[in-house]
Amino acid sequence: MGKQLPPPDVLSFDVQNSFSSVKKLVWDYPNKPLDFAGFEIRYCLGNTLDWSHGQKLHDGLLLSSPYDANLGGIAGVYTVMIKAVDTTGNYSINPAYAVFNEGDADVVNLIEEQIYDLSTVEVSNMELVGSTLKIPLSAQLWDNDRTAPLWSVNKTAPLWGGSYPLGYAIFKYKAPSKTGKIKLTIETDGVTNIYYRVNDGALWSLDKTASLWDNDRTKPLWTIGEWIPYTGEFDISLSRYEFKVEYPTQNYQSVLSHFSVIQDAEDIVTGKQIGRAHV
Question: Are 242 and 48 in contact (CB under 8 A)?
Answer without folding.
Answer: no
